[in-house]
């Protein structure tokens, strides 16, 4: 654990590193627990847990030095995009990155376990599908439910949304984290 270090923040696509290091994007609705997850994976406060939902406009890059891949922290969504299956009105940097970045291998959707799947999540699943990216769901705040409901939620999403990989974590209790690292490692293998 704790192989991640903060690399840099980027505000435009041309500032991205020009290399071939594989990348995994972490996307999630504001307040989903994405920053807490990144901090938990880094074993320290490498990501600032934001006070204001939707405040972050940059993409933050974290490097896993041991396994040689990058985690890309995307701005929170869910306060803009609504119409159809377009990626409209989310920050354009996020769109450009998701639609065109060659290094991108997979999308990890971070979601509060108590929330329901919506058009925003479906849009991201479809985008991953279109680009043949790996796609997985990480359900956060598993500590808010007992074990039975956690398992039901995982199974429900697997069936309803047709996603093979659904994991549950608690950033609070630091549970479920090694499984996420293992998944990301699998995704970045050649
Ligand atoms: P972000 O907007 O997705 O980056 O979400 P944050 O990481 O800022 O978390 C939003 C809120 O949820 C904060 O108050 C966190 O303390 C809380 N939170 C995040 N993860 C967990 C978790 O696993 N369990 C519990 N109980 N609270 C969490």
In brief:
This protein has about 190 residues and is α/β, with parallel strands linked by helices. The chain is about 30% helix and about 25% strand.
Strand order of the largest sheet: 1-3-4-2-5-6-7
Taking the alpha carbons of the first and last residues, their distance comes to 22 Å
Proportion of strand residues: 15-25%
Bound molecules: guanosine-5'-diphosphate
What is the count of β-strands?
Answer: 7
The CATH architecture assignment turns out to be 3-Layer(aba) Sandwich
Compute the number of structural domains: 1
Helix content: 25-40%
CATH topology: Rossmann fold
Structural class: alpha/beta
> Uncertain regions: pLDDT < 50 for 5+ in a row?
50-55, 79-86
The largest pleated sheet is described as: 7 strands, mixed
- Would you list the SSEs in sequence order as H and E? EEHEEHEHEHEH
How many helices in DSSP terms? 5
Can you give the mean pLDDT? 88
Describe the structure.
The protein is α/β, with parallel strands linked by helices. The protein has a single domain (5-187), classed as Rossmann fold. It is built from five helices and seven strands. The chain starts with a strand and ends with a helix. The model is unreliable at 50-55 and 79-86 (pLDDT under 50). The structure holds guanosine-5'-diphosphate.
């Amino acid at each position: 654990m704790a192989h991640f270090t903060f690399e840099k923040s980027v505000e435009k696509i041309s500032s991205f590193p020009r290399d071939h290091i594989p990348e995994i994007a972490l996307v999630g609705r504001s307040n989903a627990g994405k920053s807490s997850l990144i901090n938990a994976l880094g074993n320290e406060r490498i990501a600032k847990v934001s006070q204001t939902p939707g405040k972050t406009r940059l993409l933050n890059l974290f490097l896993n030095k041991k396994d040689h891949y990058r985690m890309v922290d995307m701005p929170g969504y869910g306060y803009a995009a609504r119409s159809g299956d377009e990626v409209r009105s989310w920050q354009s940097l996020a769109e450009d990155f998701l639609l065109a970045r060659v290094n991108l291998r997979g999308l990890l959707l971070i979601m509060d376990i108590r929330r329901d799947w919506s058009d925003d999540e479906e849009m991201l699943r479809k985008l991953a599908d279109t680009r043949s990216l790996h796609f997985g769901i990480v359900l956060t705040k598993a500590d808010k439910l007992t074990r039975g409901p956690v398992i039901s939620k995982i199974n429900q999403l697997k069936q309803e949304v047709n996603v093979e990989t659904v994991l549950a974590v608690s950033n609070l209790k630091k549970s479920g984290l090694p499984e996420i690292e293992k998944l990301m490692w699998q995704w970045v293998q050649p």
